[in-house]
Amino acid sequence: MTSTTAGHLLIERLRLIVTVEQDGHAATGERVAEVERILAQARQAHRGTGQRVEAALAALAAIEGYLGGCPQPAASEGQRPAEGRRAGRRGTNPGPNTIGWLVMKALERDRVTSLDDVVASVQRARPGTGANRVRTALTNLVRAGVVENTGRARYRLLDKPGGNRAGS
Question: Helix 115-125 and helix 99-106: axis angle, to 10°?
Fold first, then answer.
């Protein structure tokens, strides 16, 4: 075997190695892109669930606020009391720091209030609160029957949870 032939074989072998490594690098890049896409979706879902939790807590606080000191029904036989970090939360008066509570405070039973006014009121009490969080809390309060949506971005606090209009 001549040195020229051996050199050509070596070059061919190195080209094959480079091609294999390039293919591996491209495949790894594709996997990284897929993982980043999945991570972005998970982060988006996490933000969404956080907003829904905040809205659910706002609705719960609103209803608890209306019920005031009403005793909670006793657990039926076979049911255990709630465990974990939410244990004991039912029946307590909601604090003035929840967005739902601040939204209810901004609304009046006999007056329709615009979304902009509600957002401004919440932001005065809790600077940095985004309009989307206020909108989410309002939506959940409407679904819970605590607040009435009287038109485009206009809301009114209802007399009692469940849909009884003020003054009717």
Answer: 130
